[in-house]
């Protein structure tokens, strides 16, 4: 297993030589962010469960632990990690998932991995091994560096340990499919989600709306009867392929964009190739065209646009940020990585 001492030495040497470091775990999310550069820091070998308290719904794992390995441990106690982050053929690690803040179909109802973080350990740019947060849900003292790691893409330190809340595994799930247009599906999905139903998934894809219900068999059976549509014979198959980005939509999209938007906003256009998830709060677009004009359109609607695939070389792929936001992020970077050795340029060209 990779030793902390080796990681600390690598950071010290990089700082002394002013050499950038490229942090890698399972290397399953290269498609996210800008092009990686620097000497590889492999944390995949630093893995394993540090502590697990099933009765407290809390687990601590080393950052190189794969999601699939952690989920197997949780499954023994009939528990799961909330938010359904993708496992990417068993390669995705806990540290990488937190660094990218990825979530699956149940995100609007169970929260993201960021919402489950209780504490982390990181190696900062001074080669110090630091602990932030704690292992109990009431520990909120100090600046919440733990959750700042969510979506930071490794620019604020090397994650070594993560403590997470977990949830009981639902007793059963069932899904209902209904043929409907994109704009109509937004109205129907949001209307359904306002009702007291155990919804854990709401998606529109290729002309069909999918609603997933989770909970006790007696509850979801009665709930499904209230929805118009056909019950799917293979409930988990669709949602797992959606979570893992294995649907044909993702495979065929060479130019892939992700839009975060208020779920009740009308759809932009039904002419292009779209996939709508999170009851409308996340909308995937597989199409070319001018990004700047689309970006302005999305911002005018109160949303944000990220370029997942097909970005021009050297271009920023995540949403534009205000001057205040940029200054705040640069100050955080200076505090945690003063020499700028961790994943430079991965998140933004100016970071």
User: What are the secondary-structure elements, in order, as H or E?
Assistant: HEEEEHEHHHEEHEEEHEEHEHHEEEHEH
- State which percent range the strand residues make up: 25-35%
CATH class of the largest domain: Alpha Beta
The 3D shape can be described as globular
**How many strands, what sense, and barrel or not for the largest sheet?**
8 strands, antiparallel
Q: What is the mean predicted local confidence, pLDDT? A: 91
Alpha plus pi helix count: 12
- What topology, given as strand order, has the largest sheet? 13-10-12-11-15-16-14-17
Distance between the termini: 31 Å
Low-confidence stretches: 136-141
Integer count of domains: 2
The gyration radius over C-alpha positions equals 21 Å
CATH topology of the largest domain: Uridine Diphospho-n-acetylenolpyruvylglucosamine Reductase, domain 3
CATH architecture of the largest domain: 2-Layer Sandwich
How would you describe this structure to a colleague?
- 28% of the residues lie in helices and 25% in strands.
- It has helices spanning 4-17, 67-75, 94-100, 107-110, 113-116, 145-148, 182-193, 217-224, 235-243, 248-252, 291-300, 323-336; strands at residues 21-24, 39-42, 49-53, 58-62, 79-80, 117-123, 129-133, 158-165, 167-168, 172-179, 199-205, 208-215, 230-231, 256-260, 273-277, 282-286, 304-309.
